Amino acid sequence: MNSTVRRIAAPLTALVLAAALSSCGDDSGGSDSGAKKSVTLWMYPVIGDQAASTAYWKKVETDFEAANGDIDLKIEAQTWDKRDEKLAAAFAGKKGPDVVLQIPDQLPQYVRNGSFEPVDDVVEPEKDKFLPAALPGLTVDGKVYAAPIYHTVTTTMYNQAILDKAGISKPPETWDEVKAAAPKIKAAGFSTLDYSASPEATLNLNFYPLLWQAGGKVFSDDGKSVAFNQAPGLEALTFLKSLYDAGAIPRSALTNANLVTDQPFGKGQVAMAITSTPADAKTVAATWGAANVVVGKPLTGAKQVSFGLPGGLAVNAASENVDEAKKFLSFMIQPAQVEGLSKASGFFTPRTDAQTPAADPAGQQFADALKYAVPGEPNASARQVMSLLSVELQAVLTGKKAPQQALDDAAKQANDLLSRQR
Amino acid sequence: MTDARQTPDTATGRAGPVAGRPAPTSQSHRASSPGRRRSLRRPWVGLLFVAPMLLLFLAFRFLPVVGAVLLSLTDYRLSGRWDFVAVDNYTRLLQDGLFHQALVVTLTYTAVFVPLTVLLSLGTAVLLHQVVWGRGFFRGVFFLPYVTSIVLAAVIWKWIYDAQDGLINAVLGLVSIGPVDFLAESGLVLPSIAVTSAWKGFGYSMLILLAGLQAVPRSYLEAAMIDGAGTWQRFRYITLPQLRPVLFFVLVIETIGAFQVFDAMYVMTGGGPVRSSYSLVYFLYDSGFKYFDFGYASAIGLVLFAIVLVVSLVQRRLVGRDD
């Protein structure tokens, strides 16, 4: 319990102290016109391998500084852990980095607080060369706030051993095929579809892909109200509920977080999952045997949709060297840099004209899924809305509410929230 | 809370050797060694000795609390911009349905967890007190969960409770019961989490109570035995009253711990199902670090502080009245 207190107290302390110290100012930006201008980048372990990461970023620093003699690039390695708390404290104390890596999930909240500078001018010349989800994922209120440097993707993955035991020769690729396969898989003693309904599990990997596949949207086009309680939302939730009631989704779904090793799917109890990543494929290959891992196309409802995110670099609006920071962004989105990052990290490049060739058929399936990727729906209140909705989804799965009722209840709360914040 | 846990002796109410010793008269001191002793007795000298701890306490305990009080009166946002909003956060909190729900969850959890832990630690302490051979071994074994990480314990208990292939359901299955969804039933989730936390934490209270039991004078018990008191009567009328200060300490510490429950819920259920295990600290965490509503989060923290303070004072009146 003590760690709880510490967990809460420490960032708050940091925040208060940072706020108090902010008046002391920070000269590291180097306002001196004669001297080199410095650009600080906060980079996270996108490249999992430490040595490869160091080598890649060292090369970026050397190459960029060679091309821009007047700029001193400083790359600070950060950890994913507590990244929001750290960044929030840094911005609150006006001590944030000039450039920082952002993903669509985080970006809108900072934009709402005025922390980032639009970078439309940086991406404009390369606009047509990005994957369909790359720029929309990093756009808030019509402006691009981060320049994409990598792209992730998820798609459907199957356990061949379970399909074999259930006597299913062709993996189910549509909602109807999933429903048809469920009884056979159940008869063989397994569940059909893995699902995480824990409130801590992001809906981007669970309910939202189903919603998008049904042709629905989370938010209305202007972002001022929610749209998930319309017909497609009901269709997606009814599909989910019918599978859950039929025993096609494991009972532990309600407490599952999105961690493949910990989920029934990873343990070989479930036939398929709809938002698996290349890393998941590697993980399960070790437990199921590589021959049993089948990577498929994104699942199709009314539409074929997968979830995939761009990662991009954003510029601190309070930076003293915004122009230099933007120069660095322009440098980073070039094919040479994104290809290098893709090779080192195993993620994909955000550009259509610079794709790393896939090493194997599974890798090729992931690469093919990129064009169906939806990056989530950026909204400053996206996380709160997710929390409100996931509680109501649990109410449906546990039989406390009917689907339409639950969606309407969540929509009412979400619309209240959105109206308060605009 | 950390400090209180580390100094059980002060809380047990037993007088230390220093306090028990009669104070030397100033006359005798002045006569024996005038200069050195006199300077040592100046008030600021004592302050000098406690200054390092005092400074650390002020910087890392007291100031953040003041910061939280100030934050709770503002609408502090990520950008660093803020407005003074007086008690708006508190009025909003009182009207917030989520707060009411989290409060009910926290109170229910406390009502299950505290008796469970106190009885469990008292029971094991009494048993250990009887054991002559291998007491150290058992003491170590029972204390072991306390020094493991709560996250680790929660993950393991999540597996134990698993509806599909959990240990408990496997056993229940043998007698054709279940499967029971311990973490997915609103009625079962809080007791299930309380059991996990009690298993994890009872070792500490057990040690305190064991020390308390060993401090009960044997002569009282022997006298009672001669008077013909049975085992239960000796426990009820001699041991328990003697144990009261220790019991009070354990009760307060465990209650405070229960009000601050978060980690186990975060790991095991994420607050579900349908917010059945969404505690006040969880609410605070979400407000602060998911929604960056720092003013509101601070207000929740201070209200929680007030609740814990009131509950502790009530406990003091009820249990610790002889201290």
From TrEMBL, chain A:
Family (UniProt): Belongs to the bacterial solute-binding protein 1 family.
Highest taxon above the source species: Bacteria
Protein name from the UniProt record: Sugar ABC transporter substrate-binding protein
Coiled coil feature spans: none
CDD domains (alphabetical): PBP2_TMBP_like
Pfam families, per the entry: SBP_bac_8
Record has NAD as a keyword: no
GO molecular function, one term: maltose binding
Signal sequence, renumbered to the chain: 1-25
Protein's UniProt keywords contain Transport: yes
Species this chain originates from: Kribbella turkmenica
GO BP terms in the entry: maltodextrin transmembrane transport; maltose transport
GO cellular component: ATP-binding cassette (ABC) transporter complex, substrate-binding subunit-containing
InterPro entries: Maltose/Cyclodextrin-bd, SBP
Region of interest (Disordered), ranges: 402-422
Keyword vocabulary terms for this entry: Signal, Sugar transport, Transport
